[in-house]
Amino acid sequence: MNAHTISTRYWHRLADGRIQCDVCPRACKLHNGQRGLCFVRMAEDDQIVLTTYGRSSGYCVDPIEKKPLNHFLPGTPILSFGTAGCNLSCKFCQNWDISKSREMDTLADAASPQAIARAAARLGCRSVAYTYNDPTIFMEYAIDVAQACHEAGIYSVAVTAGYINVAPRRDFYAHMDAANVDLKGFTEAFYQKLCAGELQPVLETLLYLKHETNVWVEITTLLIPGWNDGEAELQAMTQWVAENLGPDVPLHFSAFHPDYKMRDVPPTPPATLHRARQIALANGVRHAYTGNVHDKRGQSTYCHACGHLLIGRNWYTLSEWGLDGDGRCQQCHTPCPGVFESHPGSWGARRLPVTIHN
User: Fold this and answer.
1) pTM of the model
2) If DSSP states are collapsed to H, E and C, what string results for 103-117?
């Protein structure tokens, strides 16, 4: 093994001599020397190893609203990083240059968990995000970073597709404070045709997070014209969220732009996002948002009880603040669901690439 390769826990040997990776429902069955579909987990020395421990495609300080998280430490900066690879094969991937990378040169930056925690503290970040590609596939590294961050009083945020098995799910989310789960569509056909995956494990992750953990959860769906933006599907999805997760889980509907293997599909019209938001609100979701478009009303937070503006947003910049020091509406004193501090952050829309030194 090299310096960036470590042993992992979730795998077992098969009778035919292959080794099965048990991190996600894909259950890749590998001979020694073979990599899983995610590319970063490999069979070596009769076990599954992670080949990218401590390596990243880059570090950047973002507004937390870019994750997107609207109810978790609004206005604060978050140190973001990812690795390479992914355990889904989404034809519409907006980060395909990272998630589908098969070049280790993509991982030009290296940092220990402790160095990342120190950098986050030095940069004034309240949290660290495992993002750009799915942290499920580099969970050992993410967990170690989360532990180092918690020791420094810094939160951890998973930006994920939620495609993970039961035991690693429990292990991974024991170290996370918030998650944005990408619910890519609401039919098995969509997941099979466009993602080479399944819907049901993602729903199980959402149910687990909401009902068995203290992780703050928000959901994002990228609406792709003609694929997952139909009336029936949006009705079914938003009803499922309200009935099974409750009314307080925020939904983000984001605009698709042509990319990767779906360059022939047009961008999402803003009207589609507005319609999806209205469907969600009508079905009992209290906080639904639009993304990747300029829509101040659709990106701001309102009190579900009295309609008072709680958090005004203009893209990633906060413009108004209507919460008291306890996260309640200043007008009617109804609590707003989420994780809030007494005052909002003031990071704004800045994106700051950074270099981390061990």
Assistant:
1) 0.96
2) CHHHCCEECCHHHHH
The rounded radius of gyration (Å) of the Cα atoms in the chain is 20
Give the integer Cα–Cα distance in Å for 135 and 119. 19
Whole-number percent of the chain with pLDDT over 70: 95
Q: What is the pLDDT of residue 156?
A: 98
- Residue 355 contacts residue 122 (beta carbons within 8 Å): no
d(CA 314, CA 272): 20
> What domains are defined for the chain?
6-50 (no CATH), 55-354 (3.20.20.70)
Verify cis geometry, omega within 30 degrees of 0, for the bond prior to 68.
yes
Under 8 Å between Cβ of 132 and 82:
yes
Asked if residues 280 and 238 have their Cβ atoms less than 8 Å apart, the reply is: yes
Mean predicted confidence (pLDDT) in 49-66: 93
Bridge partners, residue 179, by sequence: 158, 217
Helices and strands in the chain, H and E counts: 9, 20
Mean pLDDT of the chain: 94
Sign of CA dihedral 101, 40, 81, 163: positive
Q: Which stretch of DSSP H or E encloses residue 356?
A: none
Nearest in space to 177 (alpha carbons), one of 199, 147, 138, 202? 147
pLDDT tens track for 219-237: 999 999 999 999 999 999 9
CB atoms within 10 A of CB 23: 29
**How many angstroms separate the CA atoms of 194 and 287, rounded?**
28
Instruction: Specify the pLDDT at position 96.
Output: 59
